[in-house]
Amino acid sequence: MAQADGPIRVVVVDDQPLIRAGFSMVLAGQDDIDVVGEAENGADALDLLRKVEADVVIMDIRMPVMDGIQATEQLTRWDTPPGVLVLTTFDNDEDAFAALRAGAGGFLLKNAPATEVVNAIRVLAAGESVVAPRITRLLLDRVSDRLAPANGQAERLDALTARERDVLALVARGRSNAEIAGDLYVAEATVKTHLGNLMAKLHLRDRAQAVVFAYESGLVRPSP
To answer: Where's the HTH luxR-type domain (predicted)?
Structure first.
């Protein structure tokens, strides 16, 4: 969800009080960010988000009662859901990819620097996704042998032009817009136009969903 005027409203969800307090303390020092609530599991987060408005939710994956994947899946079905930034370690690769499939706008490592977390919140609040190309490549390399196309997705590719398919495939490979422009010998602005067009045709919210769709449609195949 794109941010409204005023500070970015953030809810922090983690079952460890010290981690919640740490994030809240870091974010409290930002003039453009306001922590509007905390929750210790996904169920409590959904209850809280029915009472307070938020632009971004920082969501842990492994939590009791309801985990971050289940909560994200429910939250992103709402009419105007906040952006969801999941926290992960690469000990839980499949969980990170499952969170993106559930609708999360991106993911960060739990030990990411504070500046990276703050920047990710701002990006999500602006309606973009947080899927760093370097981290995406690493994640997909580690889970690719367990990915498989989903039924009914391949037919949706028919709506795309050949160049839009090229761009989507490169996005799924973790390439940045600048790298895609170099690969295809076009201007970066042209890549952005193709990306915007293909997302509109496929009804994808952001780059994170584009990565998931590319695998589920079979456009990109797992590496041997």
So the answer is: 153-218
Residue among 38, 53, 59, 45 at smallest CA distance from 1:
53
Q: Which helix (H) or strand (E) holds 98?
A: helix 93-102
| DSSP structure string for 160-197 | S-HHHHHHHHHHHTT--HHHHHHHHTS-HHHHHHHHHH
As given in the structure block, the two tokens for residue 176 are 């940045």
Q: How many CA atoms lie within 13 A of 124 on its CB side?
A: 31
Q: What are 161-212's pLDDT values in tens digits?
A: 999 999 999 988 878 888 899 999 999 999 999 999 999 999 887 787 888 8
| pTM of this structure | 0.73
Euclidean distance between CA atoms 119 and 210, whole angstroms? 21
Q: Residue written as tokens 């039924």?
A: 151
**What CA–CA distance (Å, rounded) separates 141 from 102?**
20
β-bridge partners, 58: 12, 85
Residue 5 vs residue 147, higher pLDDT: 5
106: β partners: 85, 130
Structure tokens at 94: 């499949």
How many Cα atoms sit within 13 Å of 49 on the Cβ side?
31
